[in-house]
Each structure stands twice: as C-alpha cells, then as structure tokens.
Amino acid sequence: MNQENLSFLQEQVMYAGFGDTLDNTLKEKMAQKPATFTLDYKTAYGDDKVDAKLHFSQSKREDSDMYFFNSYKVNLKREGKPDMEQQFYINLGNNITLKEAYNLMQGRAVNKNLRNKEGEAYNTWVQLDFKETNDKGNYQMKYYNENYGYDLDTALQKYPLRELEKDSYKSNLMESLKKGNPASATLIREGKEDQKVYIVANPKFKSVTLLDSNMQRLGRRQREKQDSSKTKKQTQTPEGEDNSPSAKKKRRRKAKTV
Length: 258
Description:
Elements: H1 3-18, H2 23-32, E1 36-45, E2 48-58, E3 67-77, E4 84-89, H3 98-105, E5 110-115, E6 121-133, E7 139-145, H4 152-156, H5 167-178, E8 183-187, E9 195-202, E10 207-211, H6 220-234, H7 245-257
Antiparallel strand pairs: 1-2, 2-3, 3-4, 5-6, 6-7, 8-9, 9-10
C-alpha cells in the first residue's frame, strides 16, 4: 500500500469535513486494491439527517497504486420534506466541505476562495439553483464573484446590530455568514428590548435576510397581525356597527321575524 497516498487521502477526507472516523475503513479498502470503492458517513444537523457516500477510484496507470478521492454524494433528510441529493466534486483548492454542502442544500449561499482553469485564485459566493439541473441530476451552481458587486459588510450596515459595534464580534458574524450558516445576532430596537435574530447572506439580491427565533422572515408575523387587524376594522361601520357577512345575515333574519 502507498502510505504517502493513504496519508494524503486521510487528510483530504478530514478537510472535506468528515473528520478522521473513516481513516481505518479507508486503509482497509485500499489494501483490497479494488478499481473503485465507496465509504459511508452519517451525521445530523439539528433534526436534519445527512447521509454521505464518498467515492474513490484507483489510478488508471498500470504502474501506479495511487487512489483518488473523486466526489461525495449527500442525501439530506428533513422532516416533512422529500429527500434531496446532490453530488459534490473534489478538486484541489475548490472543495466544498460537508457542512457547506448542507448549507447549500438548505438554499443558503457560501463564500469560497476558488481557482479558475488557469490556476488563478478568485473569491466568489456560490449558491444552488433549485430550478436548474445538469445531465446528472445535480442542481446547478450559481456564482456571484467580486465583479457582481455584493458586499456583505455594506449589506449588514443597513441594520442596527449589536455585533457591528465591536470588530471581533463583527468579524465572527461575517465569517459565520460566509460559511453559509444562519448567524445569530442582536437587533437593536429603539425604545424596545433588543431582539435575537438570525441572519443569512443573500448575494443574489446584494442583501442579507433577517429571521426571527422561529427562522421566519422578520416582520412577516407582524404584517400578518396588521393585516388581520385591518380586516377586522374594515368589517365595522364608522359608528361601530359590525358589518361582517355573518352579522349582516343575522340582521336580515331578525328583520324577517319583525
């Protein structure tokens, strides 16, 4: 067995977000010298279950005993939603970690430093397009690079957040958002108690989205309450008479009996 190749693959697997729990299984598989093999990995993020299958293949050169970590396929199981699958390919310098893969499959964007075909480094936001798939059934990746004009710092400055008052807190907040996480923050409300919120980056619209503690868009519930209150007011006459359909029906029935 090529020990140097084994160590390299173990390191690749670890930095792809799978830790070192597969080290021994990987060694055993390589010792059997199959042309291809897979390793299974299971984890969970909250109530969401993630099953991953890692794909390896042997070099096609007859004089080589090297193996390559080619890709991994993620199956995401969420309560009340159909299972979802997506394959992520391993390219030197362009890898998506397992946690980033999970965040992408949740619809969130991830910021990555990648390399183009010429080997030049560039920074970009990536996000899955759930409306478009390729010939292998994978959702297409959308890229929002620096030329697109999305500035996370500028987007955050539009909101009064406690975390923006201190550089270290701001840095942690931005790093979490760049990994695709819904980052916890504190919204300052003038004359009211501060509110805990979650923030997600939204590069497509050059903004950030604020969510409440139930992971609903901030303000949605308030708007629903306002709309409900407005509807109730519209069912009453200026004199306070109930003018709802049920009240009108009762008045007509009463008039017939008089």
